[in-house]
Amino acid sequence: MKAAYIAAPGPPEAIVFGELPKPEPADGQVRVKVSAVAVNPIDVYVRSGMIDMKMPRPYVVGCDLAGTVEAVGRGVTQFTPGDRVWGSNQGIFGRQGTFAEYAVVDAQWLYPTPPLVDDRQAAACALVAITAHLGTFHRAQLQPGETIFVHGGTGGVGSCVVQMAVAAGARVIATAGSEEKAEFCRDLGAERIVNYKTEDLGVALAGFAPKGVNVWFETLREPDFDLILAHVAVGGRIVVIAGRDARPSLPIGPFYTRDCSLLGFAMFNAPADVQREAAERINGWLADGKFRANIGRVLPLAEAAAAHRLQEENTLGGAGTLTGKIVLEVP
Which residues of the chain are in CATH 3.90.180.10 domains? Predict the structure, then answer.
């Protein structure tokens, strides 16, 4: 089969697009004929060696996938050949990745794809949508009628948080870096969009939520906690999901005297049953047309190295040349 893989951690150019043996499903596993995959920041960290992650050799890159079940191992009862599925959580903790014509996945990490949802959308929403759901509801416990601020409302995770919060009946204020991105965010349902290049975010927050926002969903790698704590309500919850090497200062006084909570999490730490609950709710929104992934680029699988270079330039280099997810189509 064709696959995008590396022999050892390295730069994007270390990715080889070539032939590997077609994998066989073991007990409890499913072999998926892959149709689409998506690129995530975690893919960059693992491929580059920034995260010291156990990996098979050769290592197929990638966490997310969507496709069709081709074969099932012994003990798998929830899927049969011909079922369309999507999933994430691959390429980590010693599991093989997804950037290949075929992928073998433990059944617990796969979910049925709604009939009218195409594989591009399913792959693009996998990791980011589960992450958004875990942060917004499992961790921050967002409630109807509350106010949430999303830093980066058009990004992969941020655009998911905006849509989920709107679907849950919350008020949403989010940032965007251009009028075009602001319009996109407005289409997702955000009530107030702040162009961070031309507007004062603090002034906008004070006007939208004079008593502070209930949830602050931070997607930036370097949070400004002075700004955050000036605009979080009493009892506010602050969610952080990025900044592996960041060491920002935290003003303790305004943090504890206003009963704030700082909630950090990594999606991969969530057990399979918790992620499945998130996937089931995501599937409901997808099926009802209340949710869609923000796809920024679509490339063929053969261009996996170029896709990783683009993701790395934006994730680590702050290039700002990418809005939304990179999806690769598998022939």
Answer: 2-113+294-329, 128-267
